[in-house]
Amino acid sequence: MSNTIREYLIYIHGVSQNNNQSHNKQYDHLHDGIQSVQNDDFPNRLVWEQANRCNVEWGWNYDQAISPEADRLLAEAQDKFSDKILPQIKDNKDFTLNPARVALSPLRKLMLKGFSDMFYYSSRDGKSSIRETVSSQILQSIQQSLQTDESISLTFLTHSAGSVVAFDFLFYLFAPEEILEKHEFIETEDDSHAEQTLKDFGKLRTLADNKKLRVRRLVTFGSPISMLAFRSNAVINILAQGDRLNPDYYGFEENSTVFGEPLRGPRWINFWDKDDIISWPVSSLMKESSNITDIYLDAGDGILSVHNKYWNDKTMHKKIAAHW
């Protein structure tokens, strides 16, 4: 039996006020920034350099040859609706002295063209559509490994709402069957493409059950995972009892001997900045584990701009390389 291990780097973008375009530039900034870290600070550089990349796109029609599903129209819908409603707000005069209004206009734009991505993903239609779009790209990138006897090691580097999608992806890979019976990953509704995605996802789930799939690292930055914990009754019940989520259900405690020497250091690394109103710490959400850590990052001081500054942050690049 072959014991070949294939490493994959999966990049998933999140909210942006101008996201109707490829995110390859941001992905390259992050990838090249990590790559530039000196060898002494990058203990597993060779494994990194040999890993396969998957650049995920969602929220806009990145493949014009394919008729867009609803989630691919998200950016276009945000833009066209913003063009109508934002001028209406601006045109209504109010002479009350309120210094906070200097920031209110750009904040409204951020909410409409940023937060609405998260609102959409929290809906039944949105989560199914986005999960199918993201999962199909991930599964396509690892298709060769699914057809062989290779063991698969996944690293997710995820921003903002993209971190929530990755977090859910891992839950459906590693959570016990009796828990998943109450949840639905995606709705197929006689959609042949969605049905194939679900079938391939089942193969990946089987690999996880057989200890031949691991999450090497989940790297999140600018993540609203803690803020969005309240979108599920199951999680609300856990938090209301003062309990926390189980890291076993996301693969963070799994260290199969198939992969050789056990991974050391945290498996989930979350970067956040208090000036970024979308990002939150995550360790308080999960049961205490040495495999989960929050790293505070002073990425910037501008409340309206800091959310997209992680990609180029040299401190974050160095921390990711050290923990890789």
Can you walk me through this structure?
The protein is α/β, with parallel strands linked by helices and about 325 residues long. It has helices spanning about 25-35, 45-50, 75-90, 100-120, 125-140, 145, 160-175, 175-180, 190-210, 235-240, 315-324, and strands spanning about 5-10, 50-55, 150-160, 215-220, 270, 290-295. It contains 11 helices and 6 strands. The protein has a 6-stranded parallel sheet with strand order 2-1-3-4-5-6. Helix 1 (about 25-35) packs across helix 11 (about 315-324), helix 3 runs antiparallel to helix 4 and helix 4 packs across helix 5. The model has no long low-confidence stretch (mean pLDDT about 90). It has one domain (about 5-324).
Brief summary:
With 324 residues, the chain is of the alpha/beta class. The two termini are 27 Å apart.
Essential attributes:
324 residues, 13% strand, 6-stranded parallel sheet, alpha/beta, 41% helix, globular
